[in-house]
Amino acid sequence: MDATSKTMTATAISLPVALLLLLVVLVGAEPATSCATPLAAGAAVGGSTGQTMAGISESQLRLARDGVAIGKQRGMGESVIIAELAAQATESSFRNLANPSVPESLTYNNDGLGTNHDSVGPHQLRASVWGSVGIATLMNPTYQINWFYDRAQQLGSAAEAMSPAELAQEIERSAPNAYAGQLGLARRLYDLFADIDVGSTSRTQAATSAQGCGSGSGAPLSAASASEFGRAVIEYAARWIGTPYVWGGGDTSGPTSGGFDCSGLTLYAVYHASGGQIRLPHYTQAQQDHPTAQVVPFAQRAPGDLIFFTTPGDADSHHVGVYYGRDEQGRDLLLHAPQTGQTVTITPLSAWDGERMDVRRYATTPPGGPRA
Q1: How far apart, in Å, do the first and last CA atoms of the chain sit?
Q2: pTM of this structure
Q3: CA neighbor of 12 nearest in space, from 51, 56, 62
Q4: What is the rounded distance in angstroms from the CA atom of residue 220 to the CA atom of residue 208?
Q5: What is the CATH number of the domain that holds 301?
Q6: Model confidence pLDDT, tens digit, residues 245-256
Q7: Lowest-confidence range among 78-82, 172-176, 278-282?
Q8: Which residues make Cβ contacts (< 8 Å) with residue 185, sequence separation at least 6?
Q9: What is the CA radius of gyration of the chain?
Q10: Which pLDDT score, from 0 to 100, does residue 145 have?
Q11: Is the model's pLDDT at 53 over the cut of 70?
Q12: Both 195 and 234 in a single domain?
């Protein structure tokens, strides 16, 4: 089967433990450890925030800054803006989340994956409730921030009379008192950006669908960045993020004995992405050598390809994962089932520096045409 593979926590992408304690996070959304596939050039609004806060990334700061800027542009009071920030902190930890239950959301740049029903975005709007505007708009953080302020505006003077936690609850309709725990963080972020010159930021009136902010999220992925098949492989593998690693676990139906090992996850994803036409064996080297596997030069890797890892001096690969694309810093990412004691996650490819990496792309018709 799969030998134990080395792995490292994607600390630059995932939230540190201290931040998890600070943010007390997501109502039903899985903490994600990465951004999604390659970012479209120029998608970010307003560039760098020019601010820092311990334990909070630049992409999170950009979403917080945009919450303040949009609120000020619209003439919202301080308590309303703090309510919006508290809602973002509680719902998504200031991340524009895609959701495998809404497959089209995976085709837009995002800050990670959530699994709360069919909720997407920084305010975790449900596609089944708010999706009439279209997924392109729903995955736009600017739209979602305006959505919150639209509802505050509809409340009129009552919004200003409520406490920030009460207002966030009135608009989001989540668990009672869920937002009160984030007010300290929300106020600190408001103070950080309270003096922002809104005239220097992009105009973001209600119901606009300008490109997303945050970490360049909200913009559609380039059509060249992933094939339809590649996106499907990612979608089927990503729905199991957070599932325990189990040696020998996983088949075409899903987890077995409570989880997946690395080749169990990839055989499941490729099988379903191919509509059941490609049934890979449950062994890394056999998957790498499978008749449907196309050898792809490492420089031509694309999201949805499988990457196999071989220790120097060994003949057979010992680990496999799904190439996930790049984060906002341009780092390659791998979606995989790591090792015992861990769960299906996304890790920087640099964790395997020094090992041989072989890329394979799968097709329903083997290279060179059908085989007997």
Answers
A1: 28
A2: 0.55
A3: 56
A4: 16
A5: 3.90.1720.10
A6: 999 999 999 999
A7: 172-176
A8: 22, 23, 85, 86, 89
A9: 22
A10: 94
A11: yes
A12: no
